[in-house]
């Protein structure tokens, strides 16, 4: 087990590693670490507002367009059903670069000032690339490690949550404190990562691993170390003025921590290599295809759990003829069966309330800090805190909910109920601010926002199966842009502008008297966040319905069929 590699074995081992599950997982971490550009909107939104002379309602319309693009992933899901993963990643890279590059050209004045609807299209296209990264990396990883899906989703979405803080440090090192250059960075860097690993990530045959849970906790430790360092460096930058060299040094350390899971992946692949070369007769022995270790493309050979096996062929009916059929929970639903099920609609309503309110809070955080009189550097720290605690929320909900299911049979939707109740506290702190309370609110909002996504994705995979997971998990998050539009554009933006107009009237000014419509004071966001608190509380009550409906299912062994499938390899 601890044997090394001979010189003659180095090349074969390297090829096995580059084509193996563990390197694909590491590549997925990197892709997801670059897929969180949408969470940096609060950092560069003021640049767009000032450069293009937008009011808050228009800026919130841009925020909605971003959320629409980021959450309407049905197209990426459907494309993934009929094309290989490399094509999905390439499309995502093209959309990411094209959308954000056009925004950068507009903000820097290199093209004529676009109309509002054109800017909405640009940011929608750029944000939609996130879905292709999710579908390519996240869905593939869940299929490759089906028994650890909660932990897997928590880690992958956790790296997305850290993406904002990681790219902030890189842009400070490369471009300095220039928000316009941040837009350029989030255009080219995620696209480059996807192109580099385009042939690495693909669905492979599930393989039993002796200590898979332990390995994921080691990945968790590496990611937590990265998050803690990001938090420390972010807070230090607010207290100490960094030189260009200091920013470069911090960015170098961060890049090293981002790449640290590579060492764990190499070690695990070496374990597989040694077990192939030196069988120990263990019942947990790992068996792989000898010509292409660990790799069997799902579209060619792989029989995923729940799909028909060889010799058990059936003539499949049209999905329209089976729409009224209701498989058991955990079996493979068709897309129409899932979309018409009561469980999906209950989850949709809870997501509409929970994620819709969270997206609104995150998008307005920069403006909230400005309205409460915080300096620009402090506002940037709020955005970074949201990004970091977004990560902690994701990995916490993924790992803790997985542990509660395996050990105590606690329904995963119950965790979502608790997360939404926690979010209500953060919104109350924004509605009724105290000195320094926005720091606490940023942490709570970031944590609760991050915790929701892995829970939603895991619940969909558990209730409706993995056969059409690429499409279903993208359908499941459609509620969030709808909630964002109603709560952000129609509610928060409108009420903010109304308060700003009242302030102008008190000064004897009109809208044409000022370039940017700005509201200063705790009253600016009070009413919208009171409403968001009640909406989120209603979402928590809605999620309790799903807890009741699925409690018997979660009491069963929901991973049994995946273990049986892996053991038969």
UniProtKB/TrEMBL annotation:
Q: Which residues form the Nodulin-like domain?
A: 21-266
Quick one: where is this thing mainly located? membrane
- Identify the CDD domains for this entry: MFS_Mch1p_like
The residues covered by the NFD4 C-terminal domain are 338-554
Q: Where in the cell is it found?
A: Membrane
As for membrane topology, the entry says: Multi-pass membrane protein
Residue ranges crossing the lipid bilayer per the database entry: 21-42, 86-107, 158-176, 182-201, 213-233, 245-266, 344-362, 413-432, 438-461, 527-548
Say yes or no: keyword Cytoplasm present.
no
Cellular component terms (Gene Ontology): membrane
The record's keywords, sorted A to Z, are: Membrane, Transmembrane, Transmembrane helix
Spell out the PANTHER family in the cross-references.
NODULIN-LIKE DOMAIN-CONTAINING PROTEIN (PTHR21576:SF29), UNCHARACTERIZED NODULIN-LIKE PROTEIN (PTHR21576)
Instruction: Identify this protein by name.
Output: Nodulin-like domain-containing protein
* Higher taxonomy: Eukaryota, Viridiplantae, Streptophyta, Embryophyta, Tracheophyta
């Amino acid at each position: 087990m601890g044997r090394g590699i001979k010189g003659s074995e180095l090349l074969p081992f390297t090829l096995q590693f580059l084509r193996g599950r563990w390197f694909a997982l590491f590549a997925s971490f990197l892709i997801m670490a670059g897929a969180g550009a949408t969470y940096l909107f609060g950092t560069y939104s003021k640049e767009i507002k000032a450069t293009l002379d937008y009011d808050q309602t228009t800026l919130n319309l841009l925020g909605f367009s971003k959320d629409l693009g980021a959450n309407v992933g049905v197209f990426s899901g459907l494309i993934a059903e009929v094309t290989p993963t490399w094509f999905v990643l390439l499309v995502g890279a093209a959309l990411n670069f094209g959308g954000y590059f056009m925004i950068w050209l507009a903000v820097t004045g290199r093209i004529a000032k676009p109309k509002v609807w054109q800017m909405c299209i640009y940011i929608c296209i750029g944000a939609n690339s996130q879905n292709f990264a999710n579908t390519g990396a996240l869905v593939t990883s869940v299929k490759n490690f089906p028994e650890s899906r909660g932990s897997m989703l928590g880690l992958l979405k956790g790296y997305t949550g850290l993406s904002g803080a990681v790219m902030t440090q890189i842009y400070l090192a490369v471009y300095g404190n220039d928000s316009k250059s941040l837009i350029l960075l989030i255009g080219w860097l995620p696209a480059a990562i996807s192109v580099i690993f385009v042939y690495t990530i693909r669905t492979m045959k599930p393989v039993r691993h002796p200590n898979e849970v332990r390995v994921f906790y080691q990945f968790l430790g590496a990611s937590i170390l990265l998050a803690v360092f990001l938090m420390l460096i972010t807070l230090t930058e607010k207290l100490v003025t960094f030189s260009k060299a200091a920013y470069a040094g911090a960015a170098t350390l961060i890049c090293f921590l981002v790449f640290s899971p590579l060492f764990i992946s190499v070690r695990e692949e070496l374990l597989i290599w040694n077990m192939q070369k030196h069988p120990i007769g263990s019942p947990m022995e790992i068996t792989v295809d000898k010509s292409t270790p660990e790799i069997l493309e799902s579209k060619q050979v792989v029989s995923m759990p729940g799909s028909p096996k060889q010799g058990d062929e059936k003539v499949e009916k049209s999905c329209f003829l089976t729409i009224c059929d209701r498989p058991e929970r955990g079996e493979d639903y068709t897309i129409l069966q899932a979309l018409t099920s009561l469980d999906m609609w209950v989850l949709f309503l809870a997501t509409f309330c929970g994620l819709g309110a969270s997206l609104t809070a995150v998008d307005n955080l920069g403006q909230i800090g400005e309205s409460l009189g915080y300096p620009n550097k402090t506002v940037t720290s709020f955005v970074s805190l949201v990004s970091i605690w977004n990560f902690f929320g994701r990995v916490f909900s993924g790992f803790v909910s997985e542990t509660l299911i395996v050990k105590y049979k606690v329904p995963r939707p119950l965790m979502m109920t608790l997360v939404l109740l926690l979010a209500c506290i953060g919104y109350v702190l924004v509605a009724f601010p105290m000195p320094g309370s926005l720091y606490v609110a940023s942490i709570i909002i970031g944590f609760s926002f991050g915790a929701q996504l892995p829970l939603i994705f895991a619940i969909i995979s558990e209730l409706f199966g993995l056969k059409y997971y690429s499409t279903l998990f993208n359908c499941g998050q459609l509620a969030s842009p709808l909630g964002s539009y109603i709560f952000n554009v129609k509610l928060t933006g409108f009420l903010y502008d109304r308060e700003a107009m009242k302030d102008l009237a008190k000064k004897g000014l009109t809208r044409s008297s000022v370039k940017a419509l700005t509201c200063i004071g705790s009253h600016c966001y009070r009413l919208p966040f009171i409403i968001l608190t009640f909406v989120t509380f209603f979402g928590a009550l809605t999620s309790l319905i799903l807890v009741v409906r699925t409690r018997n299912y979660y009491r069963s062994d929901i991973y049994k069929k995946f273990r049986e499938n892996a053991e038969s390899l």
